[in-house]
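Researcher: Structure prediction, please.
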Amino acid sequence: MQRLLEALFTVRPEESDAWSKDFSAAMERDRLLWFLNAMLDFARPDAGGARGACAGGARPPAERDVLDIVERVVHYIAEEAHVPTLIELFAIRKTLAAGGATAPGFESLPVLIERELTNTDFLLALAKKAGRSRGDARQVLEYLRLIGDAAARPLREILAVSSDATIHAEACDDLLSVARDYIMPIVEDLDLDNPLEACDAVYLLRGCATGEVPAVIEKLLASPDARMRAYTIEFLAQLGTDHAVALLCDLLDDREASVRLGTLAAVEELDHPLFVARMTRMCFEDDLALKGMEELERMFRALGKLAGANVLDRIGRMAATRSLGAINTGRARRNKLLAATALRHIPGPASRRMLEKLSRDRDKLVASKAQH
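Model: Predicted structure follows.
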């Protein structure tokens, strides 16, 4: 083959020297990539390409041999699966794909390289490396960002093999970049019994346009695991439909305080009639003694933000609770503290007057809360 190439290509001494210098450093880093670049030099326009044509339109021997060698080397690089080399190879493919970057007869090179580097089985095997460490996963993600739509299935595989929440978040962002318009089948394929994948499902749903509550969310809401139910809160609050708000109202009665607190934190700005009515009923009709002070504070803060001046009269009656006996003293303090919490989020002179009155309360804790 060397004699054949020597007969077909003329390389001046100064070109040979430049070629050797250009690749000496690359050879030290990655010999396969170095050898591939050496072969690709024969396919560049300034190398002259393969001269002439064979009878019957067949490829000239030199051209055919170069293409065969390039195909084999690309296959070896893919089998080795050294991600930095794959990234460099993909950059080479991009350069070759540019107009006029290859000599006549070598136009198929970019397609040949891309076919090998985007093969589904190869990509899925590569994605399994993401389960080894965060470093491996980051390299694989960097490579998958280069290949466009073909990355969807291997990104899904990364969610299955990685136990790193940071990698899950990055892979989900990448999935939304390449598969936003057909994300639902991917979401439905996730293992909802796995907390990481359940969180992924909600994150992906929040990132795509959906006007209804999908079955995946309903399934998570029915889970006995409080974490799964809590994952749905931000999706439902973001969706904001009547059905979504009704489900949020149900979560306010969840058996786990963490879920109730998460719901209250997410819906403070949710100005929906159904939710406002539910908060009003909880604050004024439910037995407040059954809830902890942190939850009550969140309830009345949301009440102040959502109901505003519409509940001033009832807040005023709470603020006027008198202390009669030890038991009632605790109840009066609680009511005044909660009234102060709500009033601080209700604009207008009436709420300011009530706060000023509470700031002069004999109970120093109440007075301090009203002042600050």
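Model: The CA atoms of residues 180 and 209 lie 9 Å apart.
Researcher: Thanks, that helps.
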